[in-house]
Every structure is written in C-alpha cells, then in structure tokens.
Design brief:
- Pfam families: XPG_I (PF00867), XPG_N (PF00752).
- Keywords: DNA damage, DNA repair, DNA replication, Endonuclease, Exonuclease, Hydrolase, Magnesium, Metal-binding, Nuclease.
- The structure is a single chain.
- It is built from 15 helices and ten strands.
- By secondary structure, the protein is of the alpha/beta class.
- It has a domain of 66 residues: Orthogonal Bundle (DNA polymerase, domain 1).
- Helix 2 crosses helix 3 and helix 10 crosses helix 13.
- It binds a DNA duplex through helix 2, helix 3 and strand 8.
DNA sequence: CTTGACTA
DNA sequence: TAGTCAAGG
C-alpha cells in the first residue's frame, strides 16, 4: 500500500495502476473515487498567490488524530486543554503564508439528515477505539495505544471556536457554510473566489470543485508508524475538467458513479459494486435508473435526493473573503498566554513569516518600486 | 503534523 | 547537507 506516491517515476500517475493490488472494498472509508482519477503531484510553491479553500473540519480532525504524544494522548497545556489542533493550524498556516498561499477556511454548517447514519457509525467506531486505547495503555502496548488513540479524536465546539480565534489573529478568513463544508468550498472555486479546494476527501469533486488539492502540507517524507520505512506524501491536485475528460462522463454521471460506490449519504453503496464496476455501469447505461442489475437495490436508496445534495448544494450567500495582516500581539496572547505555547517558538515562527513577507515585498519593489 | 537538535 | 528522532503543550 501507498507505493503509488510520487517521488520516483512519472509526474502524472494513475492510481488505477496500483488499484488491483491495494484496494479492497471492505468498509466505507469516504467516497472512493481514487481508483478512477488522475492526481498530479504539485509543489506548494505552485499555489503561490492562489486562494485555497480549506475544509476546516477535515483539517482540524487530521491534526487531532496525528498530533499526539508518545502514548497516543493529545497535546495539552497545564490546564488540561487540548492544543493539538492549534499547534497544527498555527504551523501549517505559517507555512502556507510563507509560500504566499492564501487560505480560506470553510466550516461545516448543518448536517444533512442522510448523513446521520454515517456519523453514527463513525461515533461507534470511536467508542470502540476508546476501549481499545485504554486496553492497550493498561497492557503497556504503546504502539497500539498510539494507533487506537488516533481513532478516538472528537472535534468539540470549543476547538472550533479556538480555531476561528487563531485564524482571525493570523488574518486568515473563514466562511461558515450553511450546510456541507465541502459544498461551500467547491462553490468558492466555481465563483472564482478560490483557485482550489483542499481536503483529503474526494467529495469536493462530486460537489463540482474545479480543483481539489490533497495533502496540502509542507513536509515531504512521512514515517510509517512502527516500521522504519518512509513514504512520500506530497501535495497532489485533481482537476475536475480532467476527471470528466478521462472518464468520459458528465458531471451528473460522475455523481451517479459516486452513489454506486457509496457516499456519506449512502455509505454502504451498492453490494458487489466497486469503483471500476460503477464507472462501467454508468458508461454503459447512462444513469442509475437504466442499470437493470441494481433495480432492486436502487428502490431502497434516495438517489434523487443524494443527486440534489451534490448537484444543487446549499452554498454560502456572500462569497467575498477578506484577508488581513497577522496580528502578532493577538497570536502571542492567545497561543502563549492563554494556551501555554512557548513564546520563543511562536515568536520565532512569526518572525520567519515576517521575513518571508518582507523579502517578497522587496523583490516586488525591484520591479515596480 | 512540524520543528529543532543531533548525527553522519 | 541530509537523515533521524524526540518533543511540542
């Protein structure tokens, strides 16, 4: 698994090549478009000057599951307040700003009723993980503790508020989505307010995002937990136009393919149908209603409603986003005074950004000054 | 995840 | 300079 990352070989890769060896449809793990689409590795620098709409929940959740101590516990200050999300957001955003990338965070709004089942499933998985985590801790199996700890992450309201506070202090705008955050992020790319949407999930593509950036981060190599091997995890881009071109599908058909594979709104998908069969069936039959072999199952799925979720999503009304300056005092007060971050580290990191921004404005003055 | 100190 | 690894809070 995961040998399909770039670093050696061709710049453009087809995940499809390694699909047969790596992929099994065991349980729902998010919309699985990966085997059907081409991703292009990109450098962070290629996004310089661009606005990127970032799925906030997706990103914060990622931080909560990866930024942990040696026994799998979250990072916390002396008062027991979780700081993993703030650490991740702070350093990640500084790196983006150093690259002159303009992040806009998009926060999820109200959840669609059809998603409740999937959320419930994830909640149960977390409860199981908590049990396994405690078990592993008691028995001193630290590698297991770390593994299960990652799966216990819960994003709380206060984490959301704190994240917004930090973003504001950094001069980074955020958008409150009326419904699905992915839908709102996709919308921003359609209106031109954003160049791309950034998320680990492929949903943005079904929501019609022009571009999806995955693995939006600075680091290149990442250690495989437990083993002494490394994999390349570099940012990669999926272009909506390319997806349609290469699959030969319309956007509406792509949504149908997604529904066959399984989305958050029908997580079990259709039995016996994986990405490859799904695309074949839609190409041959045009649309869900015409696929004879799924007639029975289709009657049980609110497919028209799911289509509408993707094709006619509820999106934010005003899509103007305003970028601000870094408010050094506020960042230092919030992170260091309130959350007990090291003042030296935070100040040093802010200095690094300031240097980068100053040198950029100086190089501009050479041309225009 | 990201940094920063340390080693080869 | 690149690679490794512990620590961050």
């Amino acid at each position: 698994m995961d040998q399909l990352t770039a670093g050696q070989g061709s710049r453009v890769k087809k995940a499809l090549n390694s699909y047969n060896f790596t992929h099994k449809k065991t349980q729902y793990m998010g919309l699985d478009l990966k085997p059907l689409i081409t991703t292009v590795p990109i450098k962070l620098a290629e996004l310089s000057g661009k606005v990127v709409a970032i799925d906030a929940f997706n990103t914060i959740y990622q931080f909560l599951s990866t930024i942990r101590g040696p026994t799998g516990e979250l990072l916390m200050n002396g008062r027991g307040e979780v700081t993993s999300h703030l650490s991740g957001l702070f350093y990640r955003n500084i790196n983006l700003l150093v690259e002159n990338i303009k992040p806009v965070y998009v926060f999820d709004g109200k959840m669609h009723a059809l998603k409740a089942q999937e959320i419930e499933r994830r909640f149960k998985l977390k409860q199981e993980a908590v049990v396994q985590y405690n078990h592993a801790l008691e028995e001193g199996r630290m590698e297991d503790a770390v593994k299960y700890g990652k799966r216990t992450s819960v994003l709380t309201d206060s984490m959301v508020e704190e994240s917004k506070t930090l973003l504001t202090a950094l001069g980074i705008p955020y958008v409150q989505a009326p419904a699905d955050g992915e839908a709102a992020a996709a919308h921003l790319t359609k209106t031109g307010a954003a160049y791309a949407s950034a998320s680990q999930d492929y949903d943005s593509i079904l929501f019609g995002a022009k571009r999806l950036v995955r693995n939006l981060a600075a680091s290149g190599r990442r250690k495989v937990p437990g083993k002494s091997t490394y994999i390349d995890v570099e940012p990669e881009m999926v272009e909506h136009d390319n997806v349609l071109k290469e699959t030969g599908l319309t956007h509406e058909q792509l949504v149908d393919v997604g529904i066959l594979i399984g989305t958050d709104f029908n997580p079990s998908g259709f039995s016996g149908i994986g990405p490859k069969t799904a695309i074949k069936l839609i190409k041959e039959n045009g649309r869900l209603e015409n696929v004879d072999k799924i007639k029975g199952q289709l009657a049980e799925v609110p497919y028209q409603e799911i289509r509408d979720i993707f094709l006619k999503p509820e999106v934010p009304k005003a899509d103007g986003v305003r970028f601000g300056e870094v408010n050094r005092e506020r960042v230092l007060d919030f992170l260091c005074v309130q959350k007990s971050f090291s003042t030296d580290r935070v100040a040093g990191t802010l200095d690094k950004l300031q240097k980068a921004q100053e040198s950029r404005s100086q190089s501009l003055e050479k041309w225009f000054g």
